[in-house]
Amino acid sequence: MRALHGSLRAPGRAAPRPHAAGAAVRCAAARKGKQPQPDAEAPAAARGGKGKRSGKGGAASEQASTAAVAVAAPEATTNAEATREPQQPEAPPAQPQTTANGEDAAEEDEAGEGESSRVRCGCPWIVHRSVEPVARALEGDACREAAGPGPGWDPWSDPHVLSELAAQEIPVLQEISAAQHIILNDGFLPEADARELRAVFDDRFADPRATHPERFLWDYWHVEDQYTLVRTQAQAYFPEKLYDMLEDALLQYGESQLGCRAISPIWMSYYVDGCVQVELHCDNPHGPFAFVLSLTQGTLGGGGRGRLLDEGLPSYADWENREFSGGETVILQPHVLNYWRNFNPRQGLELQQLVTRVPAPFNRLTVFDPRFPHGVRQVHGTRDPRKARLVLHGWFTEPSPFFDGPLDPAEAAEALNGGLEPLYMALEDLSGLLTGTLVTRVSISGLDGTVTGLVFLADTLVEVPNHDRAAAEALLEGRVLPRLRALVQHEVRECMSAIVFPASATGEDSTLTLPIILE
Ligand SMILES: O=C(O)CCC(=O)C(=O)O
Ligand SMILES: [Fe+2]
């Protein structure tokens, strides 16, 4: 049997350096009064560099500040703050046993993260956490593709490859979690809260002849061949209490689901006829996850939605009855960025096989990997702001370790730092071969500090083409390079499970959310 482990070192690559994450992990300012105001002169800078940190996780994480894990390729910057500097002005609950092509059983999240509601559609990179059949959730995805080489083909799932490896007694390391580049959360806010936000917008536009000050908070933002939309800062727009509710909900989600303890200032944008984020852009520097929370309403109004909600369905009817066409977020599909690997000269591709179109029904929070080229399909139709596409958007930032529970964060940080050493060493040889973020949640026994469980909350790890070089090298040495994503997941699970944290004073259990970044 040939060994799959062993040297994975890519030639000439330096050892990875821990992120300067300590700098990024600071105690949250008191909720009120310390939020940096959006910089009217330089909104792009505000989007990338400033934002709001969670107050709750702050105290705990501050003391664990040295424990964030990041492995950087030598040519990539290792400065956490620097990577958030914007480089351009502006820039995915239970049910459906249905795949995106309307066929059978969706596969439940393999990570076993305790969220039985998470459903995976036929597109392996999309996770849907709503109650709506995924078939209606995404338009124009790649799920309809034929089997065999072509878009989305995964050699590690190809029965021919697997049987060949099995014949040679080469074990294949199984992935513990699948990559998720789009996460959909329908019904994100409590319905009444989402309605209240929406009502503010509706009220202010109710009388087109009224000239109260709030009407003048909007910026018509036009960058030739790139962005045309009307935007404002949510914090400036909404009454304070309402804004705080919104911000808290996003911070809480970011912290608990993505291991990110801050968000950029929240933009609110509406798209009437002609508005678009045309062409494609990438928001790499802004943060590891982008979000779009829709306040878009169709023509059914409260009556129609009420009826649908009574039936336990979210608001697709709203979206389908919108008074414009377009308006979906378009995100390049993963296979397009690895085009030649799966190239099939006998198969043509159309738009729906190249981009994923994500509709924005009311109260859907779409979380996506902003490193993927993306945009917003041009809106055609209404010129009325109240019938337009209306979204709140920004980025989850500051990935950092976060302890929740009675564990003393300072003591826990010491154990964590020591325990992460073997992980740094294990990941060292993978430097430059993978890029992305793996967010883990670790359950810690309050009685004896042992790790009692580990799940992956989010996973955007991508093998970069340098992998080819390593694969060639391995081949020359008579080895088979393991599935790198799986290798990282297994290393993380092994190293994290071996850590023994201090027991908690009360004996109650704690959890640690730990984002691991590979650059
Ligand atoms: O509104 C959307 O769907 C995407 C927004 C976006 O990509 C951005 O603001 O950078
Ligand atoms: Fe973007």
From TrEMBL:
Give the source's domain of life in one word.
Answer: Eukaryota
Which parts of this chain are annotated as the region Disordered? Answer: 1-118
Bias class Acidic residues marks the residues at 104-113
- List each coiled-coil range: none
Which part of the chain is the Fe2OG dioxygenase domain? 261-398
Please name the InterPro entries in this protein's record: Oxoglu/Fe-dep_dioxygenase_dom
Amino acid composition bias (Low complexity), ranges on this chain: 9-28, 59-88
Quote the protein name from its UniProt record.
Fe2OG dioxygenase domain-containing protein
Q: Which organism is it from?
A: Tetrabaena socialis
